[in-house]
Amino acid sequence: VSNVFRLERKSLLVALASDVAGWMDLAETRAQPVGLTVSRINGVTKARLKRYIDRGRMYNRPVELLHIGAHAGANGIRFDDEIADADWLSEHLAGVRVLLIAGCSADALGDWLGVVPYVVTMAEDVADDDAAKFARAFWAEIGAGNDPDAALNAAFVRAPSGMEEYVERHW
Predict the structure, then answer these.
(1) pLDDT (tens digit, 9 = 90+) per residue, 59-115?
(2) Lower Cβ count inside 10 Å, N or C end of the chain?
(3) What ranges in 10-161 are assigned the alpha helix state H?
């Protein structure tokens, strides 16, 4: 039996770079009811993400669940305008409770984002459709009220075989 994960709002922000893999993430996230309201930023830039998060704070609707679909590595996440490094992300993601970075080789970056209590990253290149199916399963479990640890374990069961080899939890 999993713990119930209490959220202020059941709202997921999906922030996507302008590449094809990111669009697949959004399609997969919306492919079935996940118990979450999905908002999106297509062609995410640092300024657009900051503005969205700041607006949520200002109107007492903080972003608690964030999915970033973009190329990533130890030096940061490649948004459409530039790379958002760990310092920038740590400064602007305060208040986010669960972050899934659907970008290859983001595991080193995840270790530096202590401001977010639950960070899930991909450790290596993962096939786009496998990553998208995993993300859909993970967010569906969060939407069902499961805590991130239980959600991740359940997503491994529902996702393509072997995903646990490529996914890292940072908590």
Answers:
(1) 999 999 999 999 999 999 999 999 999 999 999 999 999 999 998 889 889 989 999
(2) N
(3) 20-30, 46-58, 86-92, 107-110, 128-143, 148-158
